[in-house]
Automatic annotation (TrEMBL):
Source species of the chain: Artomyces pyxidatus
Superkingdom of the source species: Eukaryota
Record's protein name: Uncharacterized protein
């Protein structure tokens, strides 16, 4: 048997590996607005009487604990492209209007799916290779007193691995979660700006994804 733990919930989905079929044939290339909904709530896959949202599909299909899924090998690229779009969607406050304002061309036409993906990957590569990553990660650690598991961090910098809560350690990961926190949490942003001003620190941080 396998167990899937859903984030933000004590519910465990218990299922037999043989009950997991291959990922459904699905495309969001012409219906990105549907992805904004189905990432968080969808019923394409049901296990143990529970609908499994698209956001958890990587946990179902990727290699883990000795379980090898050939389906994930061919599906992972598509799923990660969906995640690129969702991370941008979340950085823009989960607002379809703001997303399409950014990804609409001057002639009023929405950008094509592949063009959006290419743009997001280029932006991410540029950010990850910049000195700003190191600076932003340092600011996050400084603000939380070196403890990214603090309660007021809202679990933004933690993840589960083998049932244990772990704190992010890579600067790239800490920096992007810090940017997302400042973008989406007005209270933390106000506290950070006050903290930065009192310590002579430049407080500007650009919007970033939260994965």
């Amino acid at each position: 048997m396998r167990v899937l733990c859903l984030d933000g919930s004590d519910d465990l989905v218990v299922f037999h590996p043989d009950s997991l079929r291959d990922p459904p044939t699905l495309s969001y290339a012409d219906r990105i607005d549907s992805l904004f909904v189905e990432w968080y709530q969808s019923s394409y896959i049901q296990l143990d009487g529970r609908a499994i949202p698209v956001c958890f599909w990587d946990r179902l299909y990727r290699k883990r604990d000795g379980n090898s899924s050939k389906a994930w090998g061919s599906f992972r690229g598509q799923w990660h492209n969906w995640k690129y779009i969702i991370l941008e969607f979340e950085a823009l406050g989960r607002s379809p209007a703001k997303f399409w304002t950014k990804y609409t061309k001057a002639n009023g036409e929405r950008m094509l799916y592949n063009d959006i993906i290419a743009s997001l990957k280029a932006e991410r590569k540029s950010r990850d290779n910049s000195v700003q990553v190191t600076t932003d990660a340092a600011h996050a650690r400084m603000f939380f007193g070196g403890d990214l598991t603090r309660e007021d961090a809202g679990h933004v910098f933690t993840y589960r691995k083998s049932g244990k809560v772990m704190a992010c350690s890579r600067d790239v990961e800490v920096a992007k979660r810090w940017r997302s926190l400042l973008t989406n949490n007005d209270g933390i942003r106000a506290r950070w700006e006050a903290f930065a001003a009192g310590n002579g620190i430049e407080s500007h941080v650009s919007a970033e994804d939260s994965s």
